[in-house]
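Crash report, auto-generated. Payload:
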Amino acid sequence: MKRFIGFVRKEFYHIYRDKRSLFILFGMPIAQILLFGFAITNEINKVEIAILDHAKDATTIEIINKMASSKYFSINRYLAAESQVEGVFKQGKIKAVINFEKDFGEKLIKNGQSTIQIIADATDPNTANSITNYIQSIIQQYNQSININQAGGTQVFMQTHMAFNPEIKSVFMFVPGVMTIILMLVSAMMTSISITREKELGTMEILLVSPLKPFQVVLGKVVPYILLSIINAIIIILLSIFIFKMPVQGSLLLLGAESVLFIITSLSLGILISTIAETQQTAMMISLMGLMLPVILLSGFIFPISSMPLPLQLISNTIPAKWFIIIIKGIMLKGVGIAFIWKETVILFGMTLFFMGISIYKYKIRLE
Amino acid sequence: MGISLDQISKSYKGLNAIQKITFEVKPGELFGIIGPDGAGKTTLFRILTTLLVADSGTASVAGMDVVEDFIAIRKSVGYMPGKFSLYQDLTVEENLQFFATIFGTTLEENYDLIKDIYEQIEPFKTRRAGKLSGGMKQKLALCCALIHKPKVLFLDEPTTGVDPVSRKEFWDMLKRLQEKEITILVSTPYMDEAALCDRVALMQGGQILEIDSPKNIVQKYPKAVYEIGAKERHKLIQVLRDFPNLYSVYPFGEYVHYTDNRDDLEIPELENYLKSKGLSEIYIGLTEPTIEDVFMELARK
Amino acid sequence: MSEENVIEVVELTKKFGAFLAVDAISFEVKAGEIFGFLGANGAGKTTAMKMLIGISKPSSGEASVAGFDVYTQTELIKKNIGYMSQKFALYDDLTVRENITFFGGIYGLSRSTIKEKIKVLVTDLKLENIIDQLVGALPLGWKQKLSFSVSLLHDPKIVFLDEPTGGVDPITRRQFWEMIYNAADQGTTIFVTTHYMDEAEYCDRVSIMVNGKIEAMDRPKRLKEQFEASNLNEVFLKLARNSKSD
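Recovered output after restart:
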């Protein structure tokens, strides 16, 4: 028993003398609780919706005001015709369009009923469902309020249409997210591990004392992983199409090109990590803790970004995965072309240059 | 194509790794840096191969400054860091081809330089480097460092942890390389290997204790060294420690090396003293000091 | 040195697939002896030692260490021997005192015994200034000396030393061997491997392994006579030349 206690005591010494393990034991859980607490919410908050009001009468204005004054929605766009709906969704900011039929108010008074149509962008099924539910409760409240002095009978009916994902399959939400995570993790982690392994084994010393230029070493490390990641991406896309029946509404070529861009972004992130990490273990830790966790929580893949507090939203903008998910969903589910996703593409490109730039700057041509 | 250092100093985290190191290696010399772990040998090598920048002082390799001209130096030296850093999962052949390629040459181009060494590992050329014995790895690492016909060769502890047979073979190879006019700087903790160099620098605790040819170093040793043997070896040392005129006594294999305070030690006097303490089979004889004797004497100060 | 055998090895063999790492070696080591176990890298030394200290199971043959069988009583063997290797000595991020306390505890020593031992070690090795320093900050020579002392904490019958003086400066090396001599004087058997041939001369008997077999075993003096060599280094070289390995 005494031996056992002695052994346990030694383990405690090791732990509290190693700053890094202390950080993981205490720092990480606290950070995670905060992140989870603030980020994870299936509630929606100030989601942007647009109004397509064919009637423009007192009734529709009243209902629209109710929606605008709720904390769930933010109304900034007024459409003129159905044809605009698709374009608005492709742009990505608007998550639902509320369609009031012609003569909405008149029909309500004369016939005792009229219909609101909710067209939701169901590429994020959870958000679409939440929007629909909240609107439904607003409508119900309205229905109650107009029937206070009557026996009942006057009602606004609600019709929903899930755009891009009529069966509200959650796989449509997951597949782009998982694909993003796999590509990022594999590219970034494997590259960083490969470079730090040379450092650990000591062969990096020999490579340094040779005519090889630093960028040649780094590029040499990266090229095999580009090829492997492309193969990976192809496999994932094929699986999504054939097994999960994900549509590819847009151009496959564009999808491929954007994927290659994202792979290069991830690889450059991996190189950056390798300039910080001295050992393979550190590289792996940074890749997993520093990349995977934020990507899952903050990229908008599961939890809607708009519902997060502002600081987290800002952080989310720095994560390459967030932009790539928008791009993939756009191409695969909404069939957008480059015109709609040029902004996100440029952002990814810029991030790549940024990571590369820092990596080259930090690349150690010496041992310390 | 020599090496020169002037007042090179380097410290890590407040501790002095090496202090004010100054010496020169002549072109074509086989120069040894002899010292135990922690002497600063590896730090010195890393500064000369441009992997570290010294805190102060200047150094040049083949006429090029280690800080200003590091790119040129890296193209023209051969370097074998400790632990025979090779790619364990590549074969002998693949390792050689890799290093040849990154130096812009081929195995065939400089084959005559590595022929003697390579022939010994050629039968294993398709074996993964990780599966070679220590002696084989050593030879492969040497070939990889030579493949581009460097003007200067840096070998950092190439014989550490390797058995005496392989060590001897390695030094034979180095001697033959010297004939091809390559300047060679080797470090080693084994004192007996010092005798095989043209000149050596004895190093401990970041400082150089002495630089000269092995012969001169030994000749400079101020005291007469006696080999003493007795049946009761352990007791012999303790008894000698109590001898009033003792200067130093150290075990040296079968015998003990003894030096006296006086210049005129009478051997019979010592012999009688030992007999009186109950030792038998006593042998006392004058012997040549070795590098190790000198090293320990210099380190004592 | 008594006549009792503390290590008895008969036809001990270890195979890895078809490869014979240790080929039916036989020898004995007497109590209080300093036994040098030499051989080239890859000759089978380390494999043989691993079997004797109870961390590797032999393929065939018999061996007993401190009276315990290497097949069935490995736990008892581990309790009764000390072990020190060059690769791992003490924990760098613990102080000297913490290391001694830890290893003492592992060996089952009572707290009062450990306190006693620490007192003795501090006096013998002059540890007053470094007893509460982290081992990682000490020079190599100190680490090795401390490591050896720790391996003796529980007064084992036999101590196995695996290249204990690699890379250490010449003065400290000799101090280390003085410690070995003292231990042997008090009856501890020392089983040591080394690449320093001058250290091999300090041993009472020496065995040299080549290609898994013991090709020579005797007192250093007799080996030199047998091989007509002036030191053990030459003996080693002549043996290796006769049976060219790899």
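Post-recovery validation: The mean pLDDT of chain A is 86.
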